Amino acid sequence: MENVVVTKDLKKTYLLGEVKVPALRGVNMEIKRGEMVSIMGPSGSGKTTLLNLLGGLDRPTAGKIWIDGVDISTLSDSELVRLRLDKIGFIFQQYYLVPWLTALANVEIPLMLKNIPRKERRKKAMKLLELVGLGRRFHHEPSKLSGGEQQRVAIARALANDPSIILADEPTGNLDTKTGAEIVNLLKRLNREENVTVIVVTHDPEVAKETQRILRIRDGVIERVLKPSEI
Fold it and tell me: What's the CATH class of domain 3-230?
């Protein structure tokens, strides 16, 4: 099975005034196509920084990242935008839905950015909302949806461009236990049935247990790779 994500000696240092603060100190990892992997670690260990670098939302201070064989550290800003549109779906703890748009219109946003015709994007958005169990909530605005339903809309939106990779940053963090489990099961089903590679940042061991491998990060390096049974 081929690697879809590879990093080599990945480093990220932030400047706070004149003080250098290392967030990542040399991360080496390989994730295969179709895997579902979690990244765990204490607050400040570099989990979200790593996810942002993998998604091209930030640039490394040193080291390399390959996505589908492409060294993304060499891409221009516009090429990174295209990479995110074509290959990566993002799911965040905060749902980041546009409050005045319906669920359907929120899912259509990435398709609009790719200039997909209105009729085609509407049909696809409806199909995706049905996929995540919201076939009867097309025309509801976020304020009329529960937290779990809003996260389902966010997942449908993340899938709109048929990404090969989903990056999820604490996707169950704002949800109760039951709803969080439903979201994890949905991600597992998408991983299994659609062969989407899923990388989940989480602090919750119950979420991590549902993935195939756990990368434990501490002080900006991956210190251990665990099996779910080892959590």
Answer: alpha beta
